[in-house]
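Q: Predict the assembly, please.
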Amino acid sequence: MRAAAVLGRRLSAGALVTLAVAVGNFFLFRLAPGNAANLGLVPNASPELRSSLERQFGLDHSTATQLRAYLVQLAHGNLGVSFGNRQPVAANLWTALVNTVTMVVPGLVLALALAVITGVYAAWRRGSAGDHALRAVALTMFAIPGQWLGMVLLYGARGHLPAGGISDPFLTGTGLQAHLVDRMQHMILPCLTYALIVYGAFMIVLRTSLVETLSEGYILAAKARGLSNRLILRRHALRNALLPLVTLVGLTIGTLVAGVILVESVFSWPGLGEAIYNAVNARDYPMLQGAFLLLTVVVVLSNLVVDVTYSYLDPRVQL
Amino acid sequence: MRVRDHKAAAAGLVIIVAFGLLAVLADVIAPSSIHQQVGPVFGPPSRGHVLGLDDSGADMLSLVLMGTRVSMIVGLASTVIAVAVGGVVGVLAGYFGGRVDAWLMRLTDVFLVVPILPLMIVVAALWGPSVGHAILIIGLLSWTPTARVMRSQVLATRERAFVRRAKAFGAGHMRIIWHHVFPRVRGLLVANSVIVLASAIFFEAALAFLGLESVTTTSWGTLIANAFNRAASSAGAWWAFVPPGACIALLVLGCSLVAMSFEDAGSARVPASHIFAGRLEVTRRDGQ
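A: Predicted assembly structure:
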């Protein structure tokens, strides 16, 4: 019962942040010079046309009325119409979100797998040359800008793998298999780039946490019971050491989002990041506004999920 | 602090200072003008041009050197803004507590949750591309971690005897903050600014890549962006984008090294593993 109340409070706090961002979003775009009627979308428009456009877009109403209309439409899921392809922003964003998830999830899984393997090895052989080398690699990965790593991989794989996009529009092969192979080929570089840029922080945190866990009393107790190192490591140490990783994901969701934007821009992967890149270049403000709002909601929700997961995994931590 | 930490911190510091020197001396060292075509488009590295030529036939070494100057200016200037704002917010919230603390931390929480790079992109797209805007945007949106760290440190300092004593002697808030609290948290502020510098360099490159820095600017970020837009990767011209990216990675690495040794120095207890590499080891818990 208490947990439900706490969850409700966290949810409403998240909703409040989202509302604050939505209102901030509204005024941010209001502060920009020009509006939909005089932005130059209609060149050489007469003053009459401009004022009719202003009436049509409701720009002659007071700011408060406009804000209310904006929020009401937002609550109905209406994010406006993209200047770019004249489609509803919400529909564009949904397609993009699905594409982003198909790139991010394999990337994160790969990064996590790499981090666990190398992190366990480094913690186990603490202080050895291998430990130092692996940490140096992880620190370097952490320091590399995503767009640059993407270009380096692109350079390495030029001629062997497609340079961008999610599928080949001129694919000659037919059938499910040809399509799957084509999709996989397009996925390799973006997923690998994404995995490598998020890997660094994962590995460093996991190693530190594992070294700390190995100094706990229950590890010594397990050793005294005569359990094998392998079993202790897997069942007693690694499980507990994974906890800070959950926190890290929560703390670095902003960074993970930044990685998505840069990697998708490099590989023209038609997800949220690429949508932002294109919206910036085409000055497609409704898309930009919508994408930013969606990303905020995603981050707020992920933070909530991370907190709930954490208190589930570690009952000592209360929400 | 262990000896190795000293070494890592020194190495990081050397990297940062070296880039600072390169930035100051850029136009003296640069072998040729960055606006002058000195050879073929994407000319490969040669004896005369060790880093090759870019898409307009300009010398890459000169471009990277001049880019170092702009990137360092953007990085340092926005770090100064971020650390100043974050420091003031953190000290005020921690020192005064109560309602001031509640409101400032609520503001900080909102900024902490909002994804920063997308917000920077939105503001930069609305303000228009320029170096000045990049500095302001990065600076004004990167202060939250500093504010949080400073607040918790000030909270710990506030109740110390020397602060209470100064208060009992009738010292004003400004005097206590400036003479008693601030000197205690100054080191932390310096450590934090190194982290902020690293992220500022990162953000500069990201904004430039998305076309949100003026095209006439030469920075590490715009060099990478330019190489990407002219398809340097598929043209095989690695020298057009590898050097500026390597500079970013090296500088960020230097910042991480310095920041990490500050962190290690902060936590006195180095955990000792009971088991590692197959050896049973019973150690004292204080790790000595």
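Chain A touches chain B through 62 residues (CB under 8 Å). The mean pLDDT of chain A is 83.
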